[in-house]
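Changelog note: in this version the structure field was regenerated for every chain. One regenerated record is shown below for reference.
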Amino acid sequence: INAEYMGGLKLKHLAPELPAVAEFSTGEVMGHSADRLAKAWGVSRTEQDEFAFRSHTAAARASKSGLLSDRLAVDGISDGDNGIKGDTTVEKLGTLRPAFVKPHGTVTAGSSSFLTDGASAGLVLSRSAATAQGLTARSVIRDYVYVGCDPKDELLLGPAYATGRILDRNNLTLADVDVFELHEAFAGQVLANLNALNSDKFTTLAGFKRKVGQMPLDKLNLWGGSLSLGHPFGATGVRLVTQATNRLHHEDKRLALIAACAAGGLAVSMLVERV
């Protein structure tokens, strides 16, 4: 290597580039989008703190019960996932300052999914291919829907569009679904989507035949979600599918619905059926 070119090389040039948390199409940090979405759909700061507390409490309980042992890799030094804050409280979360829209925003570090190391792999086969290879399926993908919406004002609202469409396409209601797993990018984002699904205004905006209704919290993310388990980019989708599948078996249920938002105003919903 020519020394002339190495002369200006500094140690900082060798540091890895951190993943971007800004929307590529608008340049806006996703936390700003989440803050605006929460305000637009009437989600308060207290509701966000309560939902974040719920996520960490659920994940801590599931982890202690061994329900997450196949998804939480321990490095030999720590004795558990250090992203789960089982000792947090709504009061502690309430002391955190706004992380994005300062000083009057409602989204904090505590109500946001955190960047974390992680990877995932999923094996998706036809029934005949699985049988031929001697594999036993645990669930089947019954249907899936991808949607795109305005990345400026609806960047994180895609799950509501996708959920309504997949239910309508399969002639289902929320009551027909046993397990819900939604990606928790931000507490405010999840709650805004839930409010939209139960809104006459959104029903008209999305062109749905009927209002989807209130998603039952007693079926939603009962083992924690991205707020407590983290959001390793590119790995969360498989976690949602496997967590939904594992819950179906553990709870002896039949049908799960997963949904997640993504950059670019994209989103996906999927129906997963227990085998």
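Spot check on this record: The chain has a mean pLDDT of 93. The two ends are 58 Å apart (CA to CA).
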